[in-house]
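Incident review: delayed structure delivery

Summary: a single-chain prediction request sat in the queue longer than the usual turnaround. Root cause was a stuck worker, restarted by the on-call engineer. No data loss occurred. The affected request and its eventual output are reproduced below so the record is complete for anyone auditing the incident later.

Affected input:
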Amino acid sequence: MEPLQTQEKLSILHMLDIYGAQIPVDTCVDFFLQQGFLSNEELAQALAELVERGLLTLFQKGHQEVLTLSDDGMIVLQFFRERLSPEIQEKITEAVLQLKQEHPREELLLNYDPMSQMMELTFLENGRKVFGLEMLLEEETFHSHREWLKSLTKKDISNLRRVLFGLDHNK
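Output delivered after worker restart:
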């Protein structure tokens, strides 16, 4: 397999930067295949190389694999972005904006302060806080359930809201 060109890898980094959040691998792959930027083989190779070099972070969230731009990936992108043609940057940006309208960006923030034994769980949708929960929790309990808490999905949050507050999931 031939090494991929810098422009192909920068396209992926640029897409994730514009998207601005964690993205399911399937959504990322579909995006590039639908836009015709990369073939399936090129995309698989590029994603593997970017993850291997630490420019992207790949992790499991719930039942899906998720990608995010790492700090190193952001630095590389900022340094080499001008190597990506303005036409491709614009095309990717427009397509990402369309994607974001079709699939709202969701983010789960989880913080724990061992001094106060306070856990804070915040769920954001398109940067707007839609759910927040603070609770006292022993440190050992927090750490033993941390991975499960990090895997909560929008559906889980909706169910939690409904159970705790009797709220409809659309409110």
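Verification: Residues 106-165 form one domain.
Action items: add queue-age alerting; document worker restart procedure.
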